[in-house]
Structure formats: structure tokens, C-alpha cells
Amino acid sequence: xxxxxxxxxxxxxxxxIAKKIGVALFWVLLWAVAAWxxxxxxxxxxPLDTLKGIITLSGNFKFFVSIGVTLLRVFGGVTISVALGLxxxxxxxxxxxxxxxxxxFVSIIKSLPVVSVIILINLxxxxxxxxxxxxxxxxxxxxxxxxVQGVHATDDNLLQMAKVYNVSQQRIIRDIYIPAVKPYAxxxxxxxxxxGWKVTVTAEVLANALPSVGMNLYYSKxxxxxxxxxxxxxxxVMCSYIIEKVTLYIIERNKRKGADxxxxx
Amino acid sequence: MSIVIKNLKKSYGDxxxxxxxxxxxxxxxxxGILGPSGAGKTTLLNLCxxxxxxxxxxxxxxxxxxxxxxxQEPRLLPWRTIRENLRFVFKGQSIKKxxxxxxxxxxxxxxxxxxxxxxxxxxxxxxxxxxxVAIARAFLYPSELLLMDEPFSSLDLMLKxxxxxxxxxxxxxxxxxxxxxxxxxxxxxxxxxxxxxFSDKPVRVLKxxxxx
Lengths: 265, 212
Known about the structure:
By secondary structure, chain A is mainly α. In chain A, 83% of the residues lie in helices and 0% in strands. Chain A has helices at 2-38, 47-58, 61-94, 96-111, 114-124, 130-152, 156-164, 169-207, 213-222, 226-254.
């Protein structure tokens, strides 16, 4: 009985994987047909040209250096913005005067066009650091807003219970606010990772940051190496996908039983 | 020390809940309060424990750091086990690690018939079991005053009778002052020493009777 259930589960997951591969193949096929129809690798390289480009790139040590440095910038920007967003968001959610002071600053950063921020920051600091600072400036408001929302959405019933039982503020923060904010923080982290890649690579291009994935993209464009442009883009998408999946895996592994149950029981 | 409510006034916008309201609640007795829905019974409990502030008037004889409250819902931390939920209300007691209160906690869990589920999470228990945890928490907390807001209202008859029996058994041990709000005359008659019947807003005590 149990083994039949397990077999069914395995079959279901195999079907799921097959479906995903099928969908991916459909799009690759569509791309290949479009490339064949256009018949110019300068305008639209085929999937095979892109794959060849990746193989050529990976034969060069600089390829890995560029990815490594860009990864460091993404991680640096995202880590700093999420860490500060968590701490300041928690304080902002709990302390109204602090929220009133921070909110205009966060709102202004949120409404600034990314390009303006990049160009402005590039006037003040070294090119290599610009992507990191810009990533922080773009990702921090996302985390801050999510965490403040999480604090405000904390179950009032639990807070009232803690107040009646004279529970210390420190314990209330640790055992009510932080677990309640967790789902909001996780969502902020996932958003920040997604945004972080896009912003970092854009900032690398505009700030001429070297070595970087962004500048390699730029060189591919100016030397009309469209196949390499596609290869670099594919590398970025894959890196972003892998980091997102690894982060989700780590979060799932560390999730305590019942930790996702934020509703009042 | 009895609880003395003097010239209490409380309103929400145009709705006057208490207007020059006076009442004395007996010490170390269970006082049951009956009354229509929305009359202000829960508001009175919230005023007693400081969750709400009166517009004017005073409530004397309550130590604000010595109150337990059994709410209509269990109000347990969903991300903590039952044992951790009980440790949560003890000052200086780590929530995750066992400590000096663990013996009391185990004893109380046994009394309310939950000694086998201490490491379970609230969502793994039935509604009645969770409410028993809330009762255990209220009695474990060293309080002089216990407030109860229709704690048995969502339970089926058999479970309700069992829980009320458990409640009286535990109360007999330390005889705290209890203020118990309910719609249900039977529940009140079964538990209370004194029954107050409230009128609709603004609240007046229509009837005051001693059961035993």
C-alpha cells in the first residue's frame, strides 16, 4: 500500500519534470525556428550559437572572474540591504517617530529612476563599488517596506495576550514580531535577489565597472557579437535562477515546523 | 482585596458603554457576568487588565502585573510548541530550554490532560485542546486575578463540561479572584459564586445573586 503510494508520488513528480522540460523545449524550438527564419546571427543567434558562445566563454579564466566579481556585488548589495532593511524595518514598524523620519527617504529612493541613481552615485564613488551601492539603494526600500508591513500586520490578539501576561518587550520582539515578520522578510529577500541581479548588471554597464558580467555584455554589444550577448544573458539568467533556488532550499531546510503558521490558532 | 470600580465612564464615539458605573467584585471568588451581546462585558474585562483605558473613573484593587486572562480564543503562538507557549509567560525562563518552571508546566499539562502533547504545535491540536492549553497558561501564571471571556463558548457540550470540571479542580488549589463573562446561564451557574446580570448599554447591574 505504502510502496504503491510512493510509486504514484514518484510518477507524479516525473510527469511534472517532463512537463517542465517539454515547455522549455517548446520555447527553445520556437527560438530556433525564429533564428532560422531571420537567418542572421547578428540579429538573432540560434540556441546552438548561444551554446557555442557559452562553451567559448567558459574556456577563458576571465569569464569566471567576471561572474565571481558580479556575484560578489549582487551578494554584497542584497545582504547589506536585507540586513539593514530587517533591522531598520523592525524599528520603523515599532517606533512611529522613526518611521516618520525614514519613510520620506525610502519613498524618494523608491521613486528615483535606477539610471539616475547609477549616474549620480558614479559621480561620487569608484566605478567598481557603484553596482554594490546602487543594488543596496534599490533593494533596501523593498526589504524595509515589507518588514514594516509585517510588523503592522502582527496579530493584535497575540500582542494583547503578551501585554496581559506582562511579557518583556524583548521577548515580544523575539517571539511574536520576528516570527510574524519572517514570511514578509523571505518575500523581500526573494525580491531583492531578483532585483539585485538586474540592478547590478545595469549599474556595471553604466558605471564601466571592471571586471564584470555587465561590461562583457556591453563589449558584446559594441563588437556586434550578438551570440556572446545572448550567451552572457543566458549565464545571468542561470545564475539568478540557481541563486534563487538555493536560497529557497536553505529557507525551506531551516523552516521550523509550524513556523509558517502565522494565523492565530 | 476586592476589586472596586468607581464612577467608570467609557464610550466609543457616540456609544456610551459605561456611564458612572460602580461595582465591587469579591476577592478569591468566581464572579460570573451575564448580559446581552455587545453590552460591554468584554470591555469591562479589558478595562480591568489595562488593555483599554477608561474615559474617567477608577478601578482599584488590581495589581496590573498579576493578571491572567483566558480569551475567547486560545491565543497561542503558532510557531512555538505547547510547552514553549507555557514557558512564554514566565519571566527569566528560556523558551526553548528547560528551566525551573518545567516541573510546574508538566504538572499542569497532566492536570488538563495534555501531558502527551507538550512538544506538539498548536495547529496539531483540536480547538478544545488548545483552549485547555490557554487555561493551563492562565493558572500557571502567578496571578491574583483571572479574567475569562467566554472561554467555553466554542466547545461542544461534553468537552465544555469536562473543561469546566478541570477548571474548578485547578481553581480549588489556589482560589484566585475570577471574573467570568458568558452568555450562557448554565455555565455561569455551574462555576460562579456570585452572578451579575448586566443590562444593555450603558451598562447597569440588573440583578446580583449569590449561588453558594
